[in-house]
């Protein structure tokens, strides 16, 4: 009989029709919220834990620790429970209550600090002391390799190899790094588009990292174009996705959708695929759908 792990991946890919401004362009949304933990991060969490266990990196009695803005934490809490591992998750204090409660429901310890940079520093210090083991999603190749092995091949198959543009929000950059590596091996002409917030915007799940905190797995040569997304556009498009396309997602997904729609305006023809990172029910206590 299949277990939870067997249902990570193979997520639906649906066509965006009502919000697509160009009849000569196809826009598809990859619905990662259908993963059992509710987000794209299930893939990375599974691959990071399984790979670390296979290498013997995780020692008995040493708890895991990870800094996260939310979705990775939920995925790691779920996977840690399946592998009987203790875990502490360090999150920004402005994270939605739904995320904190979900992690705690899986049995994780949650520590809230001011800002993701402070969370990363705290996790780094605790891991350096030897009291905890950090998977370090920001520097761990197993993060992006999860998408190289699963997400990108699924998209390639579902578009019959006709994808011309791939759009992804950039947080840890694992999704865009892994997918870019795979797509460029299949067809170097595929355009990889990353989304980051404008200077004055705050979009959960998308970051404009200071140089000192730029994820070590990020390779700028793998991204052909970066599109700046305003908080206002991300919010508006997230709401439009729900009310027009019946896709209930978080703000980072709205940011990626906004970029995909903007891109469709520019193209004569093409096949665009963007990542819908998670589900909207993680944001109901915020003002996203208010």
UniProtKB/TrEMBL annotation:
Chain positions found as N6-(pyridoxal phosphate)lysine: 41
Keyword Coiled coil attached: no
Domain of life: Bacteria
Residues at which pyridoxal 5'-phosphate binds: 71, 171-175, 252
Alphabetical UniProt keywords: Amino-acid biosynthesis, Cysteine biosynthesis, Pyridoxal phosphate, Transferase
Entry keyword annotation includes Transferase: yes
Tryptophan synthase beta chain-like PALP domain mapped to chain residues: 6-278
Cofactor(s) the protein needs: pyridoxal 5'-phosphate
EC number(s) stated in the UniProt entry for this protein: 2.5.1.47
Pathway linked to the protein: Amino-acid biosynthesis; L-cysteine biosynthesis; L-cysteine from L-serine: step 2/2
Family, as annotated: Belongs to the cysteine synthase/cystathionine beta-synthase family.
Protein name, per record: Cysteine synthase
Species of origin: Daejeonella lutea
């Amino acid at each position: 009989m299949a277990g939870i792990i067997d249902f990570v991946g193979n997520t639906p890919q649906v066509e965006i029709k009502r919000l697509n401004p160009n009849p000569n362009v196809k826009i598809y949304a990859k619905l990662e919220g259908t993963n059992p933990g509710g987000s794209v991060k299930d893939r990375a969490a599974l691959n990071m834990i399984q790979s670390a266990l296979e290498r013997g990196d995780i020692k008995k009695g040493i708890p895991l620790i990870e800094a996260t803005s939310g979705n990775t934490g939920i995925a790691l809490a779920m996977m840690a429970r399946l592998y009987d591992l203790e875990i502490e998750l360090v999150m920004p204090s402005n994270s939605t209550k739904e995320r904190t409660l979900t992690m705690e429901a899986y049995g994780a310890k949650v520590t809230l600090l001011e800002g993701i940079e402070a969370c990363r520093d705290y996790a780094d210090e605790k891991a350096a002391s030897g009291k905890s083991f950090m998977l370090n999603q920001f520097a761990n190749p197993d993060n992006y390799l999860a998408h190289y092995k699963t997400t990108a091949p699924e998209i390639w198959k579902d578009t019959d190899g006709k994808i011309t543009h791939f759009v992804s929000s950039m947080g840890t950059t694992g999704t865009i790094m892994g997918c870019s590596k795979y797509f460029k091996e299949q067809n170097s002409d595929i355009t990889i588009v990353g989304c980051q917030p404008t200077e004055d915007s705050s979009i959960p799940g998308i970051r404009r990292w200071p140089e000192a905190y730029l994820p070590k797995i990020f390779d700028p040569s793998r991204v052909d174009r970066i599109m700046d997304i305003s908080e206002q556009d991300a919010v508006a498009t997230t709401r439009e996705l729900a009310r027009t396309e019946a896709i209930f997602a978080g703000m980072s997904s709205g940011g990626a959708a906004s970029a995909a729609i903007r891109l469709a305006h520019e193209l004569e023809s093409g096949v665009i695929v963007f990542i819908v990172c998670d589900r909207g029910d993680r944001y109901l206590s915020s003002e996203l759908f208010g």
